[in-house]
Amino acid sequence: MKRPNEMKLSDENQKLINQKNISLNQLKNQVDTFIKGIPPVQLMRPATIGDGILTLNEKQIENYINLYESTNEQVLKFTPASGAATRMFKKLHQLMKHSENLEAFNTHLNSTAFSSIKEAIEDIESLAFYSLVEQEIKREFKVSLAQISKEEKAYYAVQVMLNENLLNLANLPKGLIYFHNYNGVLKTPFEEHFYEAAAYAKKGNHAQIHFTISPKHQGKFEAKFNAVKNQLQAQTGVSFKVDYSYQKESTDTIAVDLNNAPVLIDEQLYFRPGGHGALIENLNKVDASIIFIKNIDNIPHRDGLENNSKYKKALAGILIEKQNEIFTLIKKLRNEASEESIKASQNYIKQEFNDTNHYPTASDLIKRLNRPIRVCGMVENTGAPGGGPFWIKNGKNEMSLQIVEKAQMNTESEEQKKIIKQATHFNPVDLVCGVKDVDGNKFDLTKFVNPERGFITEKSVDGKCIKALELPGLWNGAMEYWNSYFVEVPLSTFCPVKSVFDLLTPMHLAKS
C-alpha cells in the first residue's frame, strides 16, 4: 500500500480520518516517523542522590507538609484510568488456553512456563474478591467447596474469573476490579482514590478528582460513584467533585506493517490509541493550580494511607517552595533587571537545573524560568521494569532531568548500557504539578512538549506483526520542557497492580 501522501484515500477512509479529526498531513508525518525511526535518548548520567534526586529528613517533611497545608491554591487529583484489566489476567488466559480439564490445568501449572504464578494460585483465596468467585463456583458448577480439592477449587476459580458469562474480570476497566477487602466490604481502586483525595488533595472539606477513562466505561464509573458517594462523604467528611475525560480520537496514530506501509483491516486504515502521552491534552483542560498525578492501579490498602499521604503532601510542599523561588526571581527580573537580579537567576538555573547554557538578558532568563513545574517522587530501583530518572540534553540542548523509558534508550551502546546499569532509582509515576505562571494564568501545556520523543513498538493484529507509534509519554516527552525536581520517596508508597497476583502483596492486604 502507498503512503498516505502518495495515494488517494477511499471515501470510507477519508470519512474515518475526518471523524477522528486527523489530517492527511498528520498521516504522512506519522508514516515518515516510522520510516526515519526515532533516535534514542542520549543519556548523560543517571540521576542519583545528591545529583538530581533530593532526600528529605523528618523535619523537612514536616515543614513541607505545613507549607502545603497552609496554601489556598486550588488542588486537583488527576488519575489516568482508561486501562482495561486485560493484562492483569494475561497469564491466566494463557494457562486456561491449554487447560481443557483439571488434569491439563494441573500439568501446565506445574510446568516451567507457569512457575511464576503457581505459588500465587495456591493463595488465590486471599484475593479481595474471592468471596464473589466462590458464589459463582457454587452457582455455576453446583459443587460443595468443602468437598473438592484445592487444585479443583483453583481450576473452577480461574474459569469464573475469566468467563465472559461469569465475572468476566479481564474485560472490566482496571479501576473497577475489587482490589481490597475491609472485613467483607470490597473496594475498587476507583473508590480508594477518593479516600486518598480526602487525605491529601482537599481544600477545606471539598476535593476535586479527575479520571481519564474510556468512553464505553463511563456509565460503569458513574454508577459506582453514585452508589458510594454518600458513604464516602460520611466516612471522610469531604464532598467530592468528580469529572471524567477521554483520550481524544485525534491523538490516535496509524499502524504500519514491517515495511512501513499503513495497515488495512477490511480495507480500512487501522489506528491505535496514542498512549498516555495523549493525556497532556486532558491535563491541559483541567482547572487547578496544583495537580497530583498517580495511576489508577498504584493505590495501597488503606492501612498504608497515612504513610502514602505524608509523602504526597511533602512533594506538594517542595513544589510550592520551588514555585515561590522562581516567581520571586521572575518578579525581580521584571521590576529591575539589574546585574544582581540577572546574576541571581543565572546562578539559580545553573544550580537547580544543572543548565550551563548562557542566558544573558532578563528576557532570556524569564523565558527559561517561566515554565510549568513538576516534582516527581522516585523510589529505589529493585529491578522492576519501567522508566527511570536520568540527566539528558533535552531538545533545547539544556541539561535536563527526565524520566526515560527503556524503549527510548540505546541498549546497543556499551557507553549507554554502562549508564543504565548505574541507575539507582525508578519512576513510580508520582507527580505533583504546578501549572500556573507567576501571574496566576494557566500554562498552555502543549507548548512544553518535545514532539520528537515518541515511541515505536511492535504489536500484533490478526496474528500479524505491526508497528505502533505512541506519542511522547505524559511524564516523558510531553513534559520535557518543564522545570523538574526529583525527590526520593519510600518504596512503600509504590504498589502497582500489573498482574492480578500483585493484589497478594502486603501493601494490598490488611495488616494482621
Structural write-up:
This is DUF4301 family protein. InterPro entries: DUF4301 (IPR025393), Nucleotide-diphossugar_trans (IPR029044). With about 500 residues, this protein is an alpha/beta fold. It has 2 domains: about 30-80 and about 195-495, Alpha-Beta Complex (Spore Coat Polysaccharide Biosynthesis Protein SpsA, Chain A), CATH 3.90.550; about 85-170, no CATH class. The protein has 15 helices and 22 strands. The protein has helices at about 10-20, 25-35, 60-70, 90-95, 100-110, 115-120, 130-140, 150-160, 190-200, 220-235, 280-285, 305-335, 340-355, 360-370, 415-420, and strands at about 45, 50, 50-55, 75-80, 180, 185, 200-205, 205-210, 240-245, 255, 265, 270, 270, 290-295, 375-380, 390-395, 400-405, 425, 430-435, 455-460, 465-470, 485-490. The longest helix has about 30 residues, at about 305-335. The radius of gyration is 25 Å and the shape is globular. Mean pLDDT is about 95; it is low at about 1-5.
Secondary structure layout:
Elements: H1 11-20, H2 24-36, E1 43-46, E2 48-49, E3 52-54, H3 58-69, E4 75-80, H4 90-97, H5 102-109, H6 115-122, H7 130-141, H8 150-162, E5 180-182, E6 185-187, H9 189-200, E7 202-203, E8 206-212, H10 218-236, E9 239-245, E10 253-254, E11 264-265, E12 268-269, E13 271-272, H11 280-285, E14 290-294, H12 305-335, H13 339-353, H14 362-369, E15 373-380, E16 388-393, E17 399-404, H15 414-421, E18 425-426, E19 430-434, E20 455-461, E21 464-470, E22 483-488
Parallel strand pairs: 2-3, 3-22, 4-8, 4-14, 8-9, 15-22
Antiparallel strand pairs: 1-16, 5-6, 7-8, 10-13, 11-12, 14-19, 15-18, 15-19, 16-17, 20-21
